[in-house]
Amino acid sequence: MGNAKCYGDLYTHRKFSIFPPKAQTAIFEIGNALRDSSVTDEHILAYQRSLRDVPASDISRTADEIRLIARLYLVDYGHNANFWDAPILPADWRKFKLSSPGEFLKAQPDLFWLLLFHSSGYVRQDAIKQLKRAPATEFEMAAILYRMNDWVDQVRTEAAIYASSYFPKTSAQVIGKSAFFLLPYSHQFRRWSNHERKIFEHTLSRTDVLNMLHTELLSQRPGQISWLLRWLLKKPGFDHNLQELAQSAAIPIIRAIALDTLLLGQARWYDPNIKGNALARFRERQIEVSTDFEIQLEIAAFDKSPKVRRMAADALLRKHQYASKNMDRIANHLRSDKDTPVRDHIEAYFRKRKDLERAE
């Protein structure tokens, strides 16, 4: 999903890993300690640190690598292991006897976050049942959403139950950070039913989460931010943030989308469930905030980014039949713009204005 940096692989058959060497070692060592029932707090802290900077968008590849590096199999496929007798998990989780995780794991509850990546669906399901806290990082949030798309029905069900209980308790910061990376990819979770999608969307619709996302959109940050803003435009409760984004967002595409929305008076967002070409896959609604068209037009026309000024030129062209002296003044300002598409739109605006005058 993401564009992760690659490192040399230390512990599996692969050539590359998305984890740096120190993180690979932490994952490998906690896997060994798990099989020996010798996991310490240091193992867990090292493992958690290894995931701290992993983008939520890399959850698919990360899940696979954790399973391989920590050797979370039903049998241990290591070269030096006895194929049939290698221990799988401590206590009575061995060889499908999965009625209880055992006292060892109960004493180390954060290990269940590791076991979400076990190859056995039985183990993944039981691990989710044993989780007793909300996700503390964007990666843990991503792990639950990923398990809501698990190929095993029972795992998906258990993950959805967990999400319904603990996502309302998850901090807005964790949800918001994961949203920048996960939302653009959520439509790829083909096994999500409407129930799972509603859980995710309801979580993102919390007032504190919307406020956090608004603050983040004002700043310079990674992630597919334009996709996120388009998704937020579905929410009438987000409309009051558009003016500030239009004027103060650090990233030009955010200012451009916000101003385009204000100039149109319509919010538009992409819906992958609609069949047809790309343009046909947009839904729209009237925004619920009043705005002065010419004020927004001037803000857009004098923006430092050509992406935003194109929105002004496009709006002028759309509204040429309702042109005012102020609109003509703004158009004259854009007539000498450095950006060719802006100049082309403005020339078209003046041609249409002349055609209207002749027709009168």
TrEMBL record:
It comes from the Bacteria. This is Uncharacterized protein.
